[in-house]
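User: Predict the complex with S-adenosylmethionine.
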Amino acid sequence: MTDLPAEHDAAVTNRAILTGSAYSTGRDLAARQSLYRWQTPRYDLPGIIVDRLRQVRGTVVDVGCGNGKFISRLNQDLPDLRVVGLDVSLGILDGVPRPVMVADAERLPLRTGSVNAALALHMLYHVQDIPAAIKELGRVVTAEGIVIASTNSDRDKAELDRLWERAAGEVLGVDRGPSRISLSARFSLEKAPALLGAEFREIEAMELPGTIAVRTPEPVIAHMESYRAWADQHDVPFDATIARARAILTDHIDRCGAFRISCLGGILVCSR
Ligand SMILES: C[S@@+](CC[C@H](N)C(=O)[O-])C[C@H]1O[C@@H](n2cnc3c(N)ncnc32)[C@H](O)[C@@H]1O
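Assistant: Here is the predicted structure with S-adenosylmethionine placed in the model:
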């Protein structure tokens, strides 16, 4: 992928958008997460994280914990761990198991070497200074501690990107409309090892490929609508593009029986 324009980075990391809209509640995040119900194979991501933390004792901090999906599972499956949630958005922490803190990944309010593992799951791409946040993760974990990051590949859900461009093109009356914003591009699976490698010697990457097949447009439309916080960044009327995408999807499903999306996410387990 070529370098992204500065406006893209500014939009994906914009604090007012993140805390005031995109993650002011867990609604949009839940809509994105729920698309994976139609994925084959299905991955139990919280279960994978639990397995990686089985040998860890003490405290785990979940940086950018969002709606607390991982914290709930860790509390349930590894009750001896002390799990602390941290997010820049106060609103999304509503309902997340305590203790939680409102804080920025670039300036963690934790003492050096005070936690045994840190999670940064699908969140580093939203941080303004990614190397600074990775340094902070390295600072707060003990020398034997691990950091687990996750993100998506640059190739993830390419069919959704093409669908958006086609719908946007039809709205604007051009062959191919502008691309939609890519949330994970700044810290994609392809870029993550080099960025994490500046702080950690060992990086074990685990790829999680799959295919989503939907037989009604709704799950895909809900996923597209979850980008509403960035509607103004799309250079095309957002609702009109969604309406066109729905029509294209309906037609495709009527003719082919399903709409298929190829997915590639991954987890990176880092240690010194
Ligand atoms: C895509 S969600 C991921 C949530 C959760 N980790 C998961 O995987 O389900 C990204 C989360 O990171 C948070 N976030 C974004 N920038 C942050 C920052 N600089 N420091 C802490 N949290 C941040 C957002 O508020 C949001 O809750």
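The domain at 6-271 is CATH 3.40.50.150 (Rossmann fold).
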